[in-house]
Amino acid sequence: MNGSNRLAKESLPTSQPVEKSHNYEKDHEHTDHTHEHEESIHPHIHSEESLRRIVNRLSRIEGHVRGIKTMVQQSSPCPDVLLQIAAVRGALDKVARIVLDEHLTECIARAAKEGNMEVEIEQLKAALDRFLP
């Protein structure tokens, strides 16, 4: 299918180095979104740049998924659809790695300084248990 190569090239995020510098004057604070009975132990603070990069990647993935939906609606060949699904999986895995890296370098490090390491590690383990197959 002609559109499948175009879709793969347009929708996949490019490999760019992750910027680690933070401008704490422009940081964005959001609450910890825990599940069930878990308590939030601290606010997660991430730079606007970091949040922007993650949201941009997710927006590209969202567009890519819409493209796959269109391919299915147009009865595109199954191998082409599967190839695009694999591309979305890879892009989602990349976002997950970025989020995990940010959590380890920012949130876990902050919890260690504040003495909340055990609770933060347990929350991370619970999240990884749900995330990993």
Describe this structure in words.
By secondary structure, the chain is mainly alpha-helical. Helix content is 66%, strand content 5%. It is built from 4 helices and 2 strands; from the N terminus they run αββααα. It has helices at residues 2-11, 48-73, 78-114, 117-131, and strands at 28-30, 44-46. It has a two-stranded antiparallel sheet with strand order 1-2. Helix 1 runs antiparallel to helix 2. The two termini are 32 Å apart.
Give a brief description.
This protein has 133 residues and is mainly alpha-helical. The protein has helices spanning 2-11, 48-73, 78-114, 117-131, and strands spanning 28-30, 44-46.
Number of strands: 2
H and E string: HEEHHH
Overall geometric form: elongated
> Which range does the strand content fall in?
under 5%
* Coarse structural class: mainly alpha
Average pLDDT, all residues? 76
The helix count comes to 4
Q: What is the CA-based Rg, rounded? A: 18 Å
Topology:
Layout: H1 2-11, E1 28-30, E2 44-46, H2 48-73, H3 78-114, H4 117-131
Antiparallel strand pairs: 1-2
Q: How would you describe this structure in keywords?
A:
disordered N terminus, 133 residues, mainly alpha
